[in-house]
Specification:
The protein has 223 residues and is of the alpha/beta class.
Length: 223
């Protein structure tokens, strides 16, 4: 066993975040949610109207009603428990048939600001996008847009109007506009949670201004 692995297992012993019982180190999908509690995580393929910016929007969990999903997403984002992404990939696998019905040319994970990425160490949206890419055989393309402004996380803001304002003008194209990669393409943007949808809509606006024909979205949950 490597020193890093020994320290990780000593300082971060694995247990189920729901029932608190001990869990195995492997597979990673069972490290933070035991097999019995996996059965309580019930994804449901749902559509959300975020038009006109997004032609179609899909999600699996109601952030307020699906308490277990909410707990896991919070641990993934704010406790930086990266392996929880493997738990959600099991839920995505359960919705394989619906995911494969989405029609798009490539996937763009919602980017983090570089400061946030350094703090967290990973982009949870990119981890979700990896599974969708596997299921659909469509590529992930990053470095198309970037966050130009570091702002408060949307989940920390309760007021709807403040959330919308907080998401305004936070993205910009990485390359020149129009971007030939986007020309006449349908793009799927992927994020963890949609609250007002302001972040997704802002992404869509920048992508369409850069040449995309249509923009779809997928999130684990919607608030």
């Amino acid at each position: 066993m490597s020193l890093v692995k020994y320290i990780e297992q000593t300082l971060l012993p694995s247990y189920c975040l729901n029932c608190r019982q001990d869990t195995p180190e492997e597979p990673k999908s069972l490290r933070w949610l035991c097999l019995n509690c996996h059965l309580l995580l019930l994804p449901r393929w749902q559509k959300s109207p975020l038009k006109p910016e997004l032609e179609e929007s899909f999600y699996l969990f109601d952030y307020q009603k699906d308490k277990l999903a909410k707990k896991l997403i919070h641990a993934l984002k704010y406790n930086w428990v990266k392996e929880i992404a493997e738990t959600f990939k099991v839920a995505l696998e359960q919705e394989r048939s619906n995911i494969k019905k989405m029609v798009f040319d490539f996937i763009i994970p919602v980017p983090l600001h570089p400061r946030r990425l350094r703090e967290r160490g990973f982009n949870q949206s990119a981890l979700i996008a990896e599974k969708i890419a596997e299921l659909t055989a469509q590529p992930i393309i990053e470095n198309i847009i970037k966050r130009k402004t570091y702002r408060r996380p949307q989940m920390e803001i309760k007021n709807r109007e403040s959330r919308i304002k907080n998401a305004q003008n936070i993205f910009e194209p990485v390359q020149i506009v129009p971007n030939p990669i986007l020309h006449n393409k349908t793009v799927l943007i992927v994020d963890d949670v949609a609250t007002t949808g302001a972040t997704l809509k802002e992404c869509a606006r920048v992508l369409k201004n850069s040449g995309a024909r249509k923009v779809l979205s997928f999130t684990l949950a919607q608030d």
